Design the sequence.
């Protein structure tokens, strides 16, 4: 009976010990498996189509710069949104900028992980165990030690201890920390590049909406003109001065202008929705565009200065330089695996049967690790590091060429768009004069209204050409500011917006 009780007590002690150890193991595993942010830098690029809205295309939903996190609640009050307001909201609520912020935080977390390997680690543990030991399993057989007990225990063991581990010389971890620091710099530059990208996207959306508003105004004026010409044709028909075909032709032209007005109004509403989408306006929030973007030539342009400024200012170029330095540091970290390392380890604590019956003990140790042979592991890692370094350098060279291309293209587009604006503006004046003379000739009965209808089409085409060229010119300014790397600082100055 006593033996059975003794076995039950042993089983209870064993279960308690297993539960305690299991809980401690689970807690440590949960900490070890906590998710960490992945390293990397943000590099988003997009092309802004000059003839379509930012959200057109099948892949637009996958571009974070075309989305946002809406902030606030919609009100019935119509908000006047200036270009400056739109840019400020975009820089706060655009999804691309928010994701870039988190990418930067992830890089900072990776840097702290690398730094932790260079700093001391201090931990404490306190435990109490109950155990029973079979000395025969430890090399003390009963036949060789007569009278010596084979089974010792059960007895308690209490141990409270602090552990200190610190590296003294670890070139590999040091170079990994430098690489992680360069990754943080690259992420910060990429964040600045993302801000410039938001300026480009928001500026494009605002300019598109402004162009849509101009198209609505132009279409309304064309409808009014077509209505007046139709009434004139009706009056002349009833007076017997014109055939019915002139009245029907004027009526067809009026319906065509009305259809264009409906389409322009819908396009304008869609473009306003796109603008609200990229700047994080609440859903169903009514607003108006408070900034007009008239034609203003951009003077004092110099290609060589623009290229120099681009290499000095472009955040994506600075990020690429930081990525090259990070790859070089990682390559040196791999090479440092061949070098010796020195570390210090020590612990201090109390151990005994109970907390009141314990004694201080400590251990101090210095360790020198000398790699001798690792089976080609370092050689393989060096091959990978060299390949990564070569890739980052090639990407840097490609980016230099891309910057040159961006600046030259933006300046050519700006000059071409300025010439187109001048020609289109002159053509609008000529088309208006042609329409005025055609109306006078028709009113005088010199000709039928075919000339009038043709002149109306010419005015509509001239207005559309002017609106499109003005949009292209202003967008070229934003693209130039983006190409030089100063979009956030210069776009309002270039566009004259407030």
Sequence:
């Amino acid at each position: 009976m006593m033996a059975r009780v003794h076995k039950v007590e042993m089983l209870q002690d064993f279960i308690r010990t297993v539960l305690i150890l299991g809980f401690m193991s689970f807690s440590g595993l949960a900490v070890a498996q906590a998710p960490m942010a992945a390293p990397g830098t943000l590099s988003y690029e997009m092309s802004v189509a000059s003839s379509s809205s930012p959200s057109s295309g099948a892949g637009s939903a996958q571009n974070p710069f075309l989305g946002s996190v809406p902030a606030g609640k919609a009100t019935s009050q119509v908000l006047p949104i200036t270009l400056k307001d739109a840019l400020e909201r975009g820089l706060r609520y655009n999804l691309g900028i928010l994701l870039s912020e988190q990418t930067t935080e992830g890089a900072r977390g990776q840097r702290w992980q690398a730094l932790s390997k260079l700093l001391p680690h201090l931990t404490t543990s306190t435990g109490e165990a109950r155990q029973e030991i079979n000395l025969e399993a430890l090399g003390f057989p009963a036949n060789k030690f007569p009278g010596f007990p084979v089974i010792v225990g059960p007895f308690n063991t209490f141990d409270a201890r602090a552990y200190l581990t610190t590296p003294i010389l670890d070139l590999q971890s040091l170079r990994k920390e430098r690489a992680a620091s360069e990754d943080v710099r690259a992420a910060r530059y990429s964040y600045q590049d993302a801000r410039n990208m938001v300026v480009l996207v928001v500026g494009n959306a605002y300019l598109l909406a402004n162009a849509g508003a101009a198209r609505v105004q132009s279409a309304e004026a064309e409808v009014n003109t077509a209505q007046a010409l139709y009434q004139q044709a009706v009056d002349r028909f009833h007076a017997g001065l014109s055939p019915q075909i002139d009245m029907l032709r004027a009526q067809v032209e009026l319906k065509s202008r009305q259809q264009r007005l409906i389409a322009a109004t819908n396009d304008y509403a869609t473009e306003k929705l796109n603008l609200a989408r990229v700047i994080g306006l609440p859903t169903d929030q009514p607003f108006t565009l408070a900034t007009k973007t008239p034609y203003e030539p951009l003077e004092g342009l110099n290609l060589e200065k623009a290229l120099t400024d681009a290499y000095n200012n472009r955040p994506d170029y600075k990020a690429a330089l930081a990525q090259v330095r990070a790859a070089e540091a990682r390559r040196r970290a791999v090479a440092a695996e061949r070098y010796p390392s020195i570390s210090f380890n020590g612990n201090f604590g109390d151990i005994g049967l109970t907390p009141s019956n314990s004694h201080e003990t400590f251990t101090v140790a210095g360790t020198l690790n000398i790699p001798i042979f690792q089976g080609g592991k370092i050689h393989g890692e060096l091959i990978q590091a060299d390949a990564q370094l070569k890739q980052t350098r090639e990407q840097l060279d490609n980016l230099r060429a891309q910057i040159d291309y961006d600046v030259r293209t933006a300046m050519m587009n700006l000059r071409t768009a300025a010439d187109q604006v001048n020609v289109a503006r002159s053509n609008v004046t000529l088309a208006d004069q042609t329409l005025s003379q055609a109306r006078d000739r028709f009113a005088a009965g010199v000709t039928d209204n075919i000339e009038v209808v043709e002149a109306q089409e010419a005015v509509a085409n001239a207005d559309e050409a002017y609106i499109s060229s003005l949009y292209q010119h202003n967008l070229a300014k934003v693209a130039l500011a983006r190409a030089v790397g100063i979009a956030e600082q210069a776009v309002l100055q270039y566009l004259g917006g407030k």
